[in-house]
Amino acid sequence: MKRIIAFLLVIFTLSALAACGGAKPADTAADTKTQANTQPAQTSALTENPSDPGADTKAAETETQSGKEPIAGSEGLAVSESIDECRITGLGTSTEKDIVIPSHINGKPVTLIDECAFQENKEITSVVIPWTVKKIDEDAFAGCTALVSVTFSEGLEYISEGGFYGCSSLTKLTLPASLISVGNRGFAYCGALTELTFLGNTTVVNSGFNDCENLKSIVFEGKTGESYMIRDNAFQSIKALERLVLAPGLTEIGSWNFSESSLLKAVFLPKSITKLGACAFLRSGVEKVYYEGTEEEWKNVTVKEATFTPEIIYNSSPEDVK
Questions:
Q1: pLDDT in tens, 169-193
Q2: Which tens digits make up the pLDDT trace of 243-297?
Q3: In what order do the strands lie in the sheet with 288-291?
Q4: Which residues, in sequence order, are CB contacts of 215 under 8 Å at separation 6+?
Q5: Distance from CA of residue 191 to its chain's centroid?
Q6: Distance (Å, rounded) from C-alpha 69 to C-alpha 86?
Q7: Cβ(108)–Cβ(79) below 8 Å
Q8: Distance (Å, rounded) from C-alpha 56 to C-alpha 185?
Q9: In terms of DSSP bridges, do strands 86-90 and 78-81 run parallel, antiparallel, or are they unpaired?
């Protein structure tokens, strides 16, 4: 009997050990199943945007750092992407007449509007340009004759040659303080333009605004300590001009700039001015020059136009020009 009981105990013990040993594979299988269910979800998320899975996050971080809200922009615009930035190359499939340039695409800033991007488009009526755009390239909007309004943002640095040449419906422009220069023929032949304001000290090169025949007011608000120039012919044939305010920092007015501006009676010149080019005010109506400096300082200004002999009022300020 004892032998039988001992035999039964051995059988019971072996059965219990076998049962415990079988539990482990079951747990392992469950873990494997859990991993199998999780891994495909991670891979799928990556393949949704294989070029840059963190694009939206990076764009959001950029906007937070700049303190500006992201601009989605018009849909369908043609885009060229590089490693870390984008450029707008054309209208693409967009049918909008009021164009908004996006600030970011796939997490990358839009920094440039390409040459000839919207050239000769006769449908666009307005354009909004975000702060990320640093340059508007050659002839980007040239010949956009229906374009009435352009909103520039602080951050733009260059408008290249012919950027808005022949935009004959533009009426008013305010250019940002960040703008360094307007290129040759940048806004030439914008015949409806009546008011022009520079928030900063922007250099205007040859023929930048020539033949804007209805331009009545030109104001440079300026920034302290920054120099700028008005190159030859930059404001040629501005016959309707009545008001001209030139901010401190101006060093030179080139030849043939405000000639024929017979309605312009007075002008303020900062003491930073060193040269007035030939025919700068030829046949203009300027009778008084309000000069910021002293009489002695005026003697150091090179005046290339012998017939320019207005009354000089020294120690003046821009506010003196009414």
A1: 999 999 999 999 999 999 999 999 9
A2: 998 989 999 999 999 988 999 999 999 999 999 999 999 999 999 999 999 999 9
A3: 266-269, 288-291, 311-313
A4: 193, 194, 195, 196, 209, 235, 238, 240, 241
A5: 24
A6: 18
A7: no
A8: 39
A9: antiparallel
Long-range contacts made by residues 6-9, C-beta under 8 angstroms, separation at least 24?
Answer: none
Q: Which residue has the tokens 């105990």?
A: 9
Alpha-carbon span 310 to 61, nearest angstrom: 57
CA distance 224 to 270: 12
284, 288, 283: which is closest to 269 by C-alpha?
Answer: 288
State the residue for tokens 């999780």: 38
What single string gives the DSSP state of each residue in 52-80? -TTHHHHHHHHHHHHT-------TT-EEE
Of the candidates 320, 233, 225, the one whose C-alpha atom is nearest the C-alpha of residue 269 is 320
Buried b (16+ CB within 10 A) or exposed e, 86-105: bbbbbbeebebeebbbbbbb
DSSP reduced 3-state for 131: coil
Cα(292)–Cα(270) distance, rounded to whole angstroms?
Answer: 5
User: How far apart (Å, rounded) are the C-alpha atoms in residues 202 and 152?
Assistant: 14
d(CA 261, CA 217): 11
Do the beta carbons of residue 191 and residue 168 sit within 8 Å? Answer: yes
β-pairing, 203-204 with 311-313?
Answer: unpaired
What digits encode the pLDDT tens for the residues 62-84? 444 456 777 989 999 999 999 99
pTM to 2 decimal places: 0.78
Q: Using an 8 Å Cβ cutoff, are 206 and 161 in contact?
A: no
The C-alpha atoms of residue 319 and residue 234 are separated, in whole angstroms, by 24
- Both structure tokens of 300: 């150091």
